[in-house]
Amino acid sequence: MSDVVGYEIAGRVAVLTIDNPPVNALGHAVREGIVAGMERAAADGNADAIVLIGAGRTFPAGADIREFDQPSREPHLMAVIDRLDGIEKPIVAAIHGTALGGGLELTLGCHFRVASPSARVGTPEVNLGIFPGAAGTQRLPRVAGLDHALELIVMGRPIGAATALEYGIVDEIIEGDLRAGAIAFAEKILAAGTPRRISSEPRDGIGAPQEHAATIEKYRDLANSRFRGQDSPHQAIESVIDGLRMPYEDAVMADRVRFEACKNSGQSAALRYAFFAEREAAKIPDIGKDIAPREINTAGVIGAGTMGRGIAISLADSGLPVTIVETGREALDAAMAEIVKLYEAMVARGRIDEATKAERLGRITGAVDYSALSHADLVIEVAFEDMDVKKQIFGALEKVAKPGAVLATNTSYMDIDAIAATTSRPEDIIGLHYFAPANVMRMLEVVRPANCAPDAIATGMALAKRTGKVGVLAGVCHGFVANRSRLPLVREATFLVEEGASPAQVDKVLTDLGMPMGPLAVSDLSGLDVSWRMRQSLADERDPVARYMHLADRMCELGRFGIKAGQGWYGYEDGGRRPQLDPEVEVVAAAVAKLQGITRRDISDDEIGARCLYAAINEGAKILDEGIAARASDIDVMWLYGFAFPRWRGGIMFMADEIGLGKILDQIKAFEGIHGKLWTPSPLLERLVAEGGSFTR
Ligand code: CAA
To answer: Which of 298, 272, 271, 293 is nearest to 282 (CA)?
Structure first.
């Protein structure tokens, strides 16, 4: 008897129940249990049909990803699924929760599939750097047709039960009790004598590739745009094409080789790392499940600039009523009009319908007085980045906010401990650092001041989840984790232009690495004046020995603020957003270099890559060493979601381990010799190299 696959007889139907919490992953014991249960049912004189169902929250959500790094053990999932073809009794898969990856492939081995209305099915394997490796690329096109199969396999996005029914993946939707409904369905099949449907048939191929050239091309294009630089979606397409040109047996053999190559690739290792890193980030080492988040039923936002409006929309979209407070009626009306416009744009793009727009807009109200926030369970301050302004706001807020309300600041770099210290309720104060545009970007940095209560932080993390964001914890320091670790990359990018590289050369090295935009193009987009103001506010603390971003300052003095000014690191013609080479930048860079005594030179792409990336890694190591980030993988999650760092590279800290910490340290020391103090190696990096350790393993 299997511990993880139960066996019961209900009427004339054998019910096999997979019970392997939390997500019934198809680990070795489950695979063995399914085979044993199926053989038993096949031989059981009391069973004429078989139902395969999952216990708990879901049908199997896929292979056990943790087993990927271990030697594979028989029975392989492919063999399990192939075996089902040969069982003479009809097998019905009963799907609830999420039948994903190997889970969906397992249902394809079953002869019929029924699902709960809320069930979702899909093949998200491309997100792990692989593709459906248990014949999904052969069976799904036979069941759902090539276009729908490629949609699932290449894009990796699950579909709901209704769509699965439409695609022919599911035969019936069961309202009410799924187990009872599946048994009734099996009895109906038996009574009608419906022949078993075997999804590996026809065995001799399903049409020549040239007949499907347009569909294949469509998905190649989609793979290029959605998964830039990533190989697995393309391997998935090739695997599907194998099924078009070869008989089933040959195609699955070819799949095997392709699948193993993908599974053993660096991209897959990085993507699997990212999967677990993201889930790990949700766990805060000293805040266990026993610390419940505070209840949030209403929210407030102070300040309705671009960021404040985005935050309000994000809160309203998740179902929370939000009160926005602005300084005056005019500013408030203008902000509300902008919010209406944003929702109208969502309707125009087909993202939401009119009814949803009305419902969400109905959750947002405006006020010009803090007293309107007296009922809010959470208030997020999104005012100007000025310490006096923040202190004044929190002083006023603490007087009206109800006891136990979480009071958050969206500052992106300021000392939240100092803000909290001016209030009488530091236990309620946290940082919630959103990324622009706040209603779109999934990153939420939850910043923990020294004296805040653990349940306030738990509330911040719960809010992230509730609003569909990825919450990652950070400690208080200038720029917290995300911006602090990225700043050195931007700094080096500007130094490299000062030293002789063109903005386009610098940006290209980073886009070649997989980043969607180079750092200088990003600065043009967000505005060079933002960090200029920050540098000015920190002028008193500036280290006179360390190299300074003179060129970036000079660009701002010349009004080269980026896209909004029509000129920045690039030129922008006629109010456009397309960066163009602007020779003036080189003139400015040369003048600044001369003043600083820098001799301009040709700079190699390798140096650009190392300068930008290693500066960020070194800072990441310092952040980790200071305890500002709880784990190296938390830094990586922030880069993935905050800066769209290519997921198939894992993140900067994972990349550092891939490159080798010894090599990085040597290079950092060499840069220190040339460029001075900003390159002082992180003590943690030095320790890890001495001990043969790593950041992420
Ligand atoms: N293998 C191992 N562990 C898994 C897992 C899997 N396939 N899927 C989820 N888990 C673990 C998570 O790591 C997490 O563990 P901890 O609690 O220890 O952190 C736990 O299950 C719960 O997961 P979530 O926190 O993600 O829960 P959720 O409710 O938010 O989401 C889910 C559930 C939609 C199933 C989501 O976990 C998910 O998308 N899982 C991955 C699905 C997937 O990629 N399947 C394909 C696997 S590869 C495959 O199947 C290839 C093949 O054919 C051979």
So the answer is: 293
Kindly compute the dihedral angle of the four CA atoms of residues 121, 126, 128, 133, in this order, to the nearest 10 degrees. 80
Q: What is the pLDDT of residues 389-440, one digit of tens each?
A: 999 999 999 999 999 999 999 999 999 999 999 999 999 999 999 999 999 9
What residue ranges define each of the domains in the chain, with the CATH number in brackets? 5-263 (3.90.226.10), 299-471 (3.40.50.720), 483-691 (1.10.1040.50)
Q: Which residues line ligand 1 (CB under 6 A)?
A: 22-23, 25, 61-66, 77, 98, 100-102, 105, 124-125, 128, 130, 132-134, 276, 279
DSSP letter (8 states) at residue 196: P
Closest residue by Cα to atom 25, ligand 1, is: 279
What confidence tens digit (pLDDT) does each residue in 589-619 have?
999 999 999 999 999 999 999 999 999 999 9
Among residues 105, 381, 492, 607, the one annotated as catalytic is 105
At 210 the pLDDT is 87
Question: For residue 1, is pLDDT > 80?
Answer: no
What distance separates the 2 farthest-apart alpha carbons in the chain? 92
Query: Residue 452's pLDDT is what?
Result: 97
pLDDT at 59 over 90: yes
pLDDT of residue 534: 87
Question: Which ligand 1 atom minimizes the distance to the CA of 275?
Answer: 13
DSSP H/E element including 429: strand 429-434
Mean pLDDT across the chain, nearest whole number? 96
| Tokens linked to 199 | 């999804």
Ligand 1 centroid – CA 122 distance (Å): 13
Asked if 326 is an active-site residue, the reply is no
| Ligand 1 atom closest to the CA of 120, numbered from 1 | 34
Mutate to test the pocket of ligand 1, among 4, 18, 20, 23 (most ligand atoms within 8 A of CB): 23
Of the residues 4, 65, 252, which should be mutated to test ligand 1's pocket, given the most ligand atoms within 8 Å of the CB? 65
Q: Which atom of ligand 1 is nearest to the CA of 280?
A: 19
Q: Which of 88, 125, 381, 619 is labelled catalytic? A: 125
Residue 667 pLDDT exceeds 90: yes
Q: According to the model, what pLDDT value does residue 297 have?
A: 97
Cis ω before 75 (30° cut-off from 0): yes
Smallest CA separation from ligand 1 atom 47, residue:
62
Tokens read off for 499: 């030293």
For 318, residues 6+ apart whose C-beta sits below 8 A from its C-beta are 466, 467, 468
What is the distance in A from the centroid of ligand 1 to the CA of 22? 8
Quick: pLDDT tens for 178-227: 999 999 999 999 999 999 999 999 988 888 888 899 999 999 999 999 99
Task: Give me 471's structure tokens.
Answer: 């919450």
In 3D space, the residue among 648, 659, 677 whose CA is nearest the CA of residue 613 turns out to be 659
**Residue of minimum CA distance from atom 43 in ligand 1:** 62
Residue nearest atom 16 in ligand 1 by C-alpha distance:
279
Report how far apart, in Å, the C-alpha atoms of 208 and of each of 245, 253, 257, 480 are: 6, 19, 22, 55
Residue 105 annotated as catalytic: yes
What would the pLDDT profile of 266-306 be if each residue is shown by its tens digit?
999 999 999 999 999 999 989 998 999 999 999 999 999 99
